[in-house]
Specification:
It is a single chain. The longest helix has 27 residues, at 122-148. The protein is globular. Helix 4 (111-120) packs across helix 5 and helix 7 packs across helix 8 (194-206). A hairpin with a 2-residue loop joins strand 10 (210-213) and strand 11. It contains nine helices and eleven strands. The chain has 244 residues and is an alpha+beta fold. The chain folds into two domains: 4-132, Jelly Rolls, CATH 2.60.120.10; 149-236, Arc Repressor Mutant, subunit A, CATH 1.10.10.
Length: 244
């Protein structure tokens, strides 16, 4: 079993604060209810009430909303170290669904567990608030992408953001990363058709910028892709000094 100091959530929070041994012990207590979910089996259903939150330990999931006509908008993808369904604990009902893209492992976190963390370890609570605030900043950036970026820049920006997020938990770098997303996932997230996504990926590959094949994103010209997307990672807040 992975030690808490080596877990994705600890690696992620380490970008904000160096956790002490007592704080790691509290975080470890949150990891008592470990669960596995199969691909396609929702952890959280849109409109569901009285739902636990989760910390994703391994695998990828999609957060999405379904419209009255059955169409789906993916709001974001979560990777190891991310919280899932936190709003469904704090609000009466969940405003979105969460579906595993691959088989995943997650830690179930009840509302009372979070309240205990907030009461016992203010620094850890602040770090968790940072993580949630960062997620909100990503949603804002996605709205900008949907409304103001053309398809090429939108897709380039999204792939770069995923790379930055994965680098925080040791799963990506400037060369690339493994990625289980399909063109249909990308289409639902970026407001494009799967055919349009395919065309844009081919165009970016032919320009020597990025290759996405066989479940792997390879940055062929990282700086060139950054320039195309006008990508400024400041909103991800990954280069801040640690709290004392």
């Amino acid at each position: 079993m992975m030690k808490i100091k080596d877990s994705p959530i600890t690696q992620k929070l380490a970008a904000f604060v160096a956790l002490s041994a007592p704080e790691l012990a509290v975080l470890d207590r949150l990891h008592q209810r470990r669960r596995s979910f199969s691909t396609g089996r929702d952890l959280v259903h849109q409109g569901q009430s009285k739902q636990a939150a989760y910390i994703l330990s391994s695998g990828w999931v999609a957060s999405y909303k379904v419209q009255a006509d059955g169409s789906r908008q993916i709001v974001n993808f979560q990777i190891p170290g991310d919280f899932l369904g936190l709003r469904s604990v704090l609000l009466h009902t969940s405003d979105h669904g969460i579906e595993p893209i691959v088989d995943i492992k997650a830690v179930e976190v009840l509302g009372r567990d979070l309240l205990q963390v907030f009461a016992e370890t203010p620094r850890l609570a602040t770090a968790l608030l940072w993580a949630v605030s960062r997620d909100e900043a990503m949603v804002v950036e996605h709205l900008v992408g949907l409304g103001r970026r053309d398809a090429d820049a939108r897709l380039a920006h999204f792939l770069l953001e995923l790379g930055m997020r994965l680098s925080l938990v040791g799963m990506g770098n400037r060369q690339g990363y493994d990625c289980p997303l399909t063109q249909y996932h990308l289409a639902d997230a970026l407001g494009l058709s799967a055919i349009h996504v395919n065309r844009v990926l081919r165009k970016l590959r032919e320009r020597g910028l990025v290759t996405f094949q066989g479940g792997c994103v390879k940055f062929d010209d990282y700086d060139g892709l950054v320039a195309l997307a006008d990508f400024d990672p400041a909103y991800l807040d990954q280069a801040r000094p640690l709290l004392p």
